[in-house]
Design brief:
Strand content: 15-25%
Largest sheet: 6 strands, mixed
Shape: elongated
CATH topology of the largest domain: Purple Acid Phosphatase, chain A, domain 2
Number of strands: 19
Order of helices and strands: EEEHEHEHHEEEHHEEEEEEEEEHEHEHHH
């Protein structure tokens, strides 16, 4: 049975203070919906973090509503879970009504134990959902069985055992989950919420399922034999520059699955540029770029207002760094440390060298000594 697996849309995301809604609108309207129409899967699996924050901006909500309405019109089921960035209670509004129209929004803990059964072409798939759950919520969901459980791993394992008790014989068993699988690769755009491994889940936990559609991590990657992160469809930090963003087309059968990655062609790329200012400026004049850029200047001298000069040719400049300035800051830090152990005369001599370009003359040092005596900072000064 064919599914389209995607996750971590983060609608309403900002990157260095710049809204990514135009890029997200392009992704959904010009890439994702045409892909779904072409492939016509048994269902779309959206594995959490639909929004970038719990109280999403109106434009982000409108964009998701547009997506849901289109899938409902095409009669293609959408199975979406809440992630750690989503407002679960807000997402759950109207869930029971939407379910009757093929839209399953799993945002409440109890949704873990209400699987969706799909039948198509003589095949059956049983789809379980596990929205983002913290340990206290998971323990409450499990009742007496949850007493004494301390970690996400322990809670997840107990939830999966209960799911397994509901398995239909002969069906393909699919899980949609938003979590951090131990050993997976992180990106800068993911929140550093994992402390001491307590929020990690072992890959073996998901072994009972034929396919686990994971969300939460932004780099596409396998997670054990049956789990896979589709990754975010867009670049949400500069360090994701080289990640190959895609949407996954997955064919699942009892005991096996295959994946085809459909590469995303974005409205604007996120790129790093490194080089001399004059070269970067000339390249911009020759071929202006609308991409979202992080620029590092390698010049061995300061450049006057580089961002202002580059902005006309790189209007979506995110940030600019100067290696020369970084070296100056490092040198200043070293000098500050050295100054703590140097004598006042040595510090004064360095100051004269840096500011005036020449060593302090004997008469300069004599004046300094006289001033220090007047201030009672060296021996021999008179009482004021």
């Amino acid at each position: 049975m064919k599914f389209i697996h995607t996750s971590d849309w983060h609608l309403g995301r900002m990157l260095y203070g710049r809204s990514l809604l135009p890029d997200q609108e392009h992704f959904i309207r010009d890439f994702f919906l045409p892909l779904v129409k072409r492939e016509h899967p048994a269902a779309v699996l959206l594995a959490g973090d639909v929004y970038d924050r719990s109280v999403a901006p109106a434009a982000a909500i409108k964009l998701f509503d547009e997506t849901v309405s289109q899938l409902a019109e095409w009669e293609i089921p959408l199975i979406v879970i809440s992630g750690n960035h989503d407002g679960a209670d807000r997402m759950a509004i109207g869930a029971s009504v939407l379910r009757k129209h093929g839209i399953l929004i799993a945002a409440r803990p109890q949704d873990c134990f209400t699987p969706w059964v799909l039948e198509q072409g003589g095949e059956t798939a049983q789809i379980f959902t596990m929205p983002w759950l913290d340990v206290p919520t998971a323990r409450q969901l499990l009742g007496e069985e949850g007493e004494g459980l301390r970690t996400t791993q322990e809670c997840t394992q107990a939830i999966v055992r209960r799911m397994e008790e509901q398995f239909l014989p002969g069906a393909a068993h699919v899980l949609v989950s938003h979590c951090f699988v131990a050993g997976s690769a992180l990106s800068d755009s993911e929140s550093p919420i994992f402390v001491g491994g307590g929020d990690q889940v072992f890959v073996e936990t998901f072994q009972p399922f034929d396919y686990v559609a994971l969300g939460h991590l932004h780099g596409p990657q396998r997670a054990g034999e049956t789990g896979r992160y589709s990754g975010s469809p867009l670049w949400y930090s500069v360090d994701e520059e080289h990640q190959k963003k895609s949407v996954s087309i997955v064919n699942v059968h009892p005991g096996s699955f295959t994946v085809q990655e459909e590469r995303v062609v974005p409205l604007r790329w996120v790129r790093r540029i490194k080089g001399h200012f004059d070269e970067i400026l000339q390249a911009g004049k020759t071929s202006p770029s609308e991409d979202l850029l992080d620029i590092t200047l390698t010049d061995d001298h300061p450049v006057y207002l580089p961002a202002k000069q580059l902005q006309p040719y790189y209007p979506n400049l995110l940030s600019i760094h100067s290696q020369w300035l970084l070296r100056q800051q490092e040198d200043a830090g070293i000098q500050a440390i050295d100054a703590r152990s140097a004598s006042r005369q040595e510090v004064f001599s360095r100051f004269m060298k840096d500011v005036c370009g020449e060593e302090a003359a004997p008469e300069d040092l004599a004046v300094l000594e006289e001033v220090l005596r007047d201030l009672h900072l060296i021996e021999g000064g008179e009482e004021g």
